[in-house]
Amino acid sequence: MAINHVEGKVFPLRRDNVDTDQIIPKQFLKRIERKGFGQYLFYHWRFEDDGKSLRDDFSLDTPQYQDAEVLLGGKNFGCGSSREHAPWALQDYGFKVIIAKSFADIFYNNCLKNGILPIQLEEKTVDALLRNESHVDLYKMEVSLEHQTICDSEGLRVSFEIDPYWKTMLLKGLDEIDLTLHYGKDIEEYEKNYEVSGLGI
Question: 60-96: buried (b, 16+ CB within 10 Å) or exposed (e) per residue?
Answer without folding.
Answer: beeeebeebbbbbbbebbbbbbebbbbbbbbbbbbbb
